[in-house]
Design a protein that fits this description.
Length: 198
């Protein structure tokens, strides 16, 4: 890792035109992760996550959830002891309703989960590995650091995930049908507005 020629961030010594996104954020390369010796961040799926989140593709089947319902997307997140809040930040991609069941059955981190229909999932920023401005080494920590687009701190980060903010959220219950197998539930089915229980 080297200091960027502007002095206000990090960069790769052999940086190429595809190493940064439109906001100037540096994105992880597979070779960097292998050589770092750090605990394995979920780097393998960085490109896939970026693609699914930026295009609103279902995280299970890859289908375009905007085609399924252009007005709202279904998000299933790990349970943090409360419903999904307005402006909730997440690195999760949406799921199409038939895939919600598959997601919660096959993703261990979704064993306990909350869900919401979201009208406006908006690009918020990136999550990744933060680097120290003096040592140019990764700042110790277990969690990925989230940085908003426009925040100068993003220049000291190697992104591994795109982050969305969820706006226009309507929490849904487990028992309202969104977790039923394909064919048993339609996207038009009315959903109650009570708080989520898990
Ligand atoms: Zn799907």
């Amino acid at each position: 890792m080297v200091r960027h020629r502007t002095g206000r961030g990090i960069g790769f010594a052999d940086e190429g035109p595809y190493d940064r996104d439109a906001d100037g954020v540096l994105w992880i390369r597979q070779a960097i992760a292998r050589g770092s010796g750090r605990p394995l961040f979920p780097t393998v799926h960085a490109l896939r996550q970026r693609r699914t989140v930026s295009r609103m593709l279902c995280q299970v089947c890859g289908a375009d959830t905007l085609k399924h319902d252009p007005e709202r997307q279904l998000f299933v997140l790990k349970d943090v002891g409360r419903p999904i809040e307005e402006g909730e930040l997440t690195t999760a991609a949406p799921v199409c309703p038939p895939c919600a069941l598959i997601a919660v059955e096959h993703c261990p981190h979704l064993r306990g989960h909350v869900a919401a229909w979201v009208e406006r999932p908006l690009p918020w920023g990136v999550a990744g590995i933060l680097y120290d401005r003096d040592t140019l080494s990764p700042v110790p920590g277990d969690d990925l650091t989230k940085v908003a687009y426009g925040d100068p701190a993003r220049h000291w980060l190697v992104a591994t995930r795109q982050v969305l903010s969820l706006n226009g959220c309507t929490a849904v219950f487990k028992d309202t049908g969104y977790l039923l197998p394909a064919g048993a539930v339609g996207p038009q089915r009315p959903l109650p507005r009570e708080a989520v229980t898990t």
